[in-house]
Specification:
This protein is an alpha/beta fold and about 375 residues long. The protein has 15 helices and 13 strands. It has a seven-stranded parallel beta sheet with strand order 3-2-1-4-5-6-7, sandwiched between helices. It has a six-stranded parallel beta sheet with strand order 10-9-8-11-12-13, sandwiched between helices.
Length: about 375
């Protein structure tokens, strides 16, 4: 009797856990006999993936922060290598997280002759383009979720397929409340503790300044599954807490009841764009990491919204520019100006149309099963 195929998935961070969970569900629907195991978070576990190591222990931001988590990273590497040796899976699926996946997992799996599919590309189009050679050598097929990535990899003769953007599924039936009567502003500080500590205080100070001019305003803060509520609460001044709600719910749901957002650069900028909500994007990391990164990053914008649009449709404030005074100035320019606000919404709607249709996880699963058959 032919054994059931065993696939290993390795994802890092909350976004990787989210995409890994949706992919796992799609794989099991299309091929119920498939067995899944790997590294991820609670969502992947709930979707039927047997976890061998928690991805939360691997999450870091910036080049210098890695040193503080080296023992966890080494433990994760040991766990996945031992697992690959033990189960000898039929295929390995890597989801984003290139520092770990591309350098610590893929070379080892390649030596074991395990086929590898990369779902959600490393951002080699932005920096470290030397990784392209590594991808060509180690990866059998790469599945991308941003339209310009397909063209980029085709130019470098990498086997690539655009499967659409998985976030479109969350916004297929998105219905915002009437924004003319909506006074809620989202403060979206990210899912990493280091960026939350660095950026949420700036957002809150800006919110307090804006509240003086607009006392009807209220502020919603989404709390990622990997983040403790107490870590957020201690960053909110006691005399401001009555104006704030902390919410553990999908960002797409929270954004239905929002008219504006302050967003940490990352996947949340695209989610906010798909909700057609004007925003200010802010970004601030360890100064040394920024200095190093600035020398090698090769794209004109930091937010996915602007990168996909290929122009600045939402403002970006980086490092020292990401301060409360400048944030509030931009809030006045965009949120308090109906013409500018409507123009931004129009641009965000156009961006959405560039991404295609929902169903990315299903198309990715079909491509993975096809690759699996190629190696039978």
């Amino acid at each position: 009797m032919k054994k059931s195929p065993h696939l290993v998935i390795v994802a890092g961070e909350d976004s990787g856990d989210f995409h890994g969970a949706n992919l796992a569900t799609a794989l099991q629907r299309q091929s119920p006999e498939i067995k899944l195991s790997g590294i991820g978070g609670s969502k992947m576990e709930e979707s039927g993936v047997e976890l061998i190591f928690p991805s939360a222990r691997l999450t870091v931001i910036g080049l210098t922060e890695v040193l503080g988590r080296i023992s966890d990273i080494l433990a994760g590497r040991k766990a996945i290598r031992e697992h690959l040796l033990k189960v000898r899976p039929d295929l390995l699926i890597l989801i984003d997280f290139p520092g770990f996946n591309l350098h610590l997992v893929a070379p080892f799996a390649h030596k074991l002759r395990i086929p590898i599919v990369y779902y959600i590309s490393p951002k080699v189009w932005a920096w470290r383009q030397g990784r392209i050679a590594t991808i060509k050598r180690l990866i059998d097929r790469i599945l991308v979720i941003l339209p310009f990535e397909k063209e980029f990899f085709e130019e470098h003769n990498v086997a690539v397929e655009y499967v659409g953007n998985p976030l479109l599924d969350d916004f297929a039936s998105f219905r915002p409340l009437d924004r003319r009567q909506n006074h809620n502003i989202a403060l979206i500080p990210g899912s990493r503790n280091s960026e939350i500590k660095r950026l949420l205080p700036e957002m809150i100070t800006a919110a307090r300044l804006y509240l003086r001019e607009h006392p009807e305003s209220r502020f919603l803060i989404p709390v990622a599954p990997s983040v403790k509520l107490v870590d957020i609460e201690k960053l909110i001044p006691a005399n401001f807490r009555e104006y704030v709600k902390l919410l553990r719910q999908p960002l797409a749901t929270l954004l239905e009841d929002v008219s504006f957002a302050l967003v940490t650069s990352g996947t949340a900028t695209l989610e906010t764009a798909l909700a057609e909500i004007p925003m200010v994007v802010i970004y601030k990391i360890n100064p040394l990491s920024y200095i190093i990164g600035k020398r090698v990053i090769k794209v004109p914008f930091i937010s996915l919204a602007n990168l996909i649009a290929e122009k600045e449709i939402v403002p970006e404030l980086i490092q020292t520019e990401a301060n409360p005074e400048k944030i509030v100035r931009l809030m006045r320019i965009i949120r308090d100006n109906q013409l500018r606000y409507s123009h931004t919404v129009h641009n965000l709607r156009e961006l959405k149309s560039r991404l295609g249709k929902p169903g990315a996880a299903q198309r990715a699963a079909a491509a993975i099963i096809d690759e699996l058959r190629n190696h039978e």
